[in-house]
From TrEMBL:
Binds 2 manganese ions per subunit. The keyword Metal-binding applies. Its EC number is 3.4.11.1, 3.4.11.10. Its cofactor is Mn(2+). Mn(2+) 1 binds at D271, D348, E350. It catalyses: Release of an N-terminal amino acid, preferentially leucine, but not glutamic or aspartic acids; Release of an N-terminal amino acid, Xaa-|-Yaa-, in which Xaa is preferably Leu, but may be other amino acids including Pro although not Arg or Lys, and Yaa may be Pro. Amino acid amides and methyl esters are also readily hydrolyzed, but rates on arylamides are exceedingly low. GO terms for biological process: proteolysis. The lineage of its organism: Bacteria, Pseudomonadati, Pseudomonadota, Alphaproteobacteria, Hyphomicrobiales. It is an enzyme of class 3 (hydrolase). Presumably involved in the processing and regular turnover of intracellular proteins. Catalyzes the removal of unsubstituted N-terminal amino acids from various peptides. This is Probable cytosol aminopeptidase. The gene is pepA.
Length: 500
C-alpha cells in the first residue's frame, strides 16, 4: 500500500503487548473486557479501564475511543480502548469505521489489537472489514512534500491483530485488500496535480491493470475521429493535451461470452470551463473533475485483484477543457457518435458531452447488462444533497434499489432523483436535436436527461458525484481530499448481485 501500513492477523497466544507499542481492546457500554482481552492485558486491566473511563467520561459508545498513557502494570506504552456501543445494536456496527477509529488513535505506531469482546467474537467478514478500515484511514498523499511529518497520525503503522478467526481469513482478507487497493488507486488519481495527470498520463497508468489480467484498449484522437466521437473531441479541442478513451475489460465469469456489467467515468483532468470560463476562486479544485473516471479504474483494479466471478467493463473519457483560439464556442453545434446533434450553450457543461460518446460506444459495441456512469457533473447536486449523498438517476427500479442497498451497507450513500418528460423538454434546441444545458433550475435533472438520450434501452444509472468525489469531508476512514468514492459501493453491488 502507498502508506506503508503493515497488518498481520495472528491467533491468540502468538503475541503479547510490548514496551513501545499500543494495546487495543474493545468494550461495550458495560466497559467489560472479554476473557481473552483480560488475559492478554494482564491483571488489573479491567480496573484501569473502569477508572480511566470515569475520569474521561468514556461510555463505550460505538466509534468512540479512549487512550490511557503509561498504564500501570501493563507492558504496553498506551492502552487504547475502542467502544462498540450497546450489545443489542452490535450487528449494526460498521467495522470499517471502527478500523478507522483504531488507526486514528494508534497513528504511526506499533499496536497489538485484541479483536475480541465480552459476549461476542468477530466473523471473518468482520475482521476483513476492520482491516479495510485500518488501511483506508492510514492513506495519505504527501508525494510532493519535501518535508514529511514524522509524527503524523497518518504515518506508517504496524498492526498485529489477534483473532480466533486468524486461520480462516485468507480469502476474505484478499478481497478486502483488493478493495482497499482500488480505493487508494482512485484517491491517488484524484489527488494528483493536473500538470502531472493529463489525459495521456492517466491513460498510461491504466495499463498497470494488465498485470492483473485486465485487457486495456486506449483510443487516441485519430481512432476517436474515425469512430465519430465528435462531442468528446469538441471538449478537448481547446487544449494542448490530446484526449483519450480507455476501455478496460475483466472477464471473470465462467462464461466468457456473458454480457458484461459496464461502468463509465467522466475524466476531465482539468476543467477551466473553456470559453465559458469559471471564476478563479476554487478553480484549483477542478483537477478532481475526473473522479468518476478514477472510481472506474479503482473498481476494475478491485474486481480483478479479488478475481471477481463477473465480466465487467470500465470505460473512461479523458479530456482537458481549456480556453483557446481553437476551443469550442457557445453557439457551436456538434454531431455526437450517435448521430444526434448538440447545440453548445455553455462550454462548462462539458462532462455530459464526454459521457454521451463513451456511453453510446459502450452500449453499441459491448451490449452490456447495464450501464452505470459516474461524474462530478453539476454544482446543483451539491445544493440539493450536500456532501452526504450522491445523486442517482435511473431507468431501472431494480438497479436503483440494489445500488441504494449497497450504499447503506458501505456508507457510500445514494439518493434517487427524478426523471420526467418536463425536464427532458428543457434541453430541446431550436437549432439542433438538443442543447447541452437546460438552464439553472433543475440543473442536475436536465443533465441526467441529456445523458439518458445516449443509452437507448440499456438499464442505466447516472451517479452525480460532485459532492462526494472530491474535496471530500474528513471521515473515520478517509483523511484524503480525493475520497475514492464509489469503489466500495460498486464492488458491493457486483458482489451481492452479479457474480456467478
Amino acid at each position: 500500500m502507498a502508506d506503508g501500513i503493515s497488518i498481520a492477523f495472528e491467533p491468540f497466544g502468538s503475541a503479547k503487548a510490548e514496551e513501545g507499542s499500543d494495546l487495543v481492546l474493545f468494550v461495550g457500554e458495560d466497559l467489560a473486557l472479554s476473557a481473552r482481552a483480560a488475559e492478554i492485558a494482564g491483571e488489573g486491566a479491567g480496573d484501569i479501564v473502569a477508572r480511566a473511563a470515569a475520569v474521561e467520561r468514556f461510555k463505550g459508545k460505538a466509534n468512540t475511543a479512549m487512550t490511557v498513557t503509561a498504564p500501570a502494570g501493563l507492558r504496553a506504552d498506551r492502552l487504547v480502548v475502542v467502544g462498540l456501543g450497546p450489545e443489542a445494536e452490535r450487528d449494526k456496527l460498521d467495522w470499517a469505521v471502527l478500523g478507522g477509529v483504531t488507526a486514528g488513535k494508534v497513528g504511526g505506531r506499533r499496536a497489538l489489537v485484541v479483536l475480541d469482546w465480552a459476549g461476542g467474537a468477530p466473523t471473518p467478514e468482520t475482521a476483513a472489514s476492520f482491516s479495510l478500515g485500518l488501511r483506508l484511514r492510514a492513506y495519505k498523499f504527501d508525494r510532493y512534500k519535501s518535508k514529511k511529518g514524522e509524527n503524523d497520525e497518518n504515518g506508517a503503522s504496524r498492526f498485529t491483530v489477534l483473532t480466533a478467526e486468524a486461520g480462516n481469513l485468507k480469502k476474505v482478507l484478499r478481497g478486502a485488500d483488493a478493495v482497499a487497493e482500488g480505493v487508494v488507486l482512485a484517491r491517488e488519481l484524484v489527488n494528483e496535480p493536473p500538470n502531472v495527470l493529463d489525459p495521456e498520463e492517466f491513460a498510461r497508468r491504466t495499463e498497470a491493470l494488465e498485470k492483473l489480467g485486465v485487457s486495456v484498449e486506449i483510443l487516441d484522437e485519430k481512432a476517436m475521429r474515425k469512430l465519430g466521437m465528435r462531442a468528446l473531441l469538441a471538449v478537448a479541442q481547446g487544449s494542448a493535451k490530446e484526449a483519450r478513451v480507455v476501455v478496460m475489460r475483466w472477464n471473470g465469469a465462467d462464461d466468457p461470452s456473458e454480457p458484461p456489467v459496464a461502468f463509465i467515468g467522466k475524466g476531465v483532468c482539468f476543467d477551466s470551463g473553456g470559453i465559458s470560463i469559471k471564476g478563479s476562486g476554487g478553480m484549483e479544485d477542478m483537477k478532481g473533475d475526473m473522479a468518476g473516471a478514477a472510481c472506474v479504474v479503482g473498481l476494475m483494479h478491485a474486481l480483478a485483484a479479488r478475481k471477481a466471478k463477473v465480466n465487467a467493463l470500465g470505460a473512461i473519457g479523458l479530456v482537458e477543457n481549456m480556453p483557446d483560439g481553437k476551443a469550442q464556442r457557445p453557439g457551436d453545434i456538434v454531431t455526437s457518435l450517435s448521430g444526434q446533434t448538440i447545440e453548445i450553450i455553455n462550454t462548462d457543461a462539458e462532462g455530459r458531452l464526454v459521457l454521451a460518446d463513451v456511453l453510446w460506444h459502450v452500449q453499441q459495441e459491448y451490449k452490456p447488462k447495464f450501464m452505470i456512469d459516474l461524474a462530478t457533473l453539476t454544482g446543483a447536486i451539491l445544493v440539493a444533497l450536500g456532501q452526504e449523498y450522491a445523486g442517482m438517476f435511473s431507468t431501472s427500479d431494480e438497479l436503483a434499489e440494489r445500488l441504494a442497498a449497497a450504499g447503506e451497507a458501505t456508507g457510500e450513500k445514494v439518493w434517487r432523483m427524478p426523471l420526467s418528460p418536463g425536464f427532458d423538454k428543457l434541453i430541446d434546441s431550436k437549432f439542433a436535436d438538443m442543447k447541452n444545458t437546460g438552464g439553472r433550475h433543475g440543473g442536475s435533472a436536465t443533465a441526467a436527461h441529456f445523458i439518458k438520450r445516449f443509452v437507448n434501452d440499456v438499464p442505466w444509472v447516472h451517479l452525480d458525484i460532485a459532492g462526494v468525489g472530491m474535496n471530500a469531508p474528513s471521515s473515520e476512514i478517509s483523511r484524503s481530499w480525493g475520497s475514492g468514492w464509489g469503489v466500495r459501493l460498486l464492488d458491493r453491488l457486483v458482489r451481492d448481485h452479479y457474480e456467478g
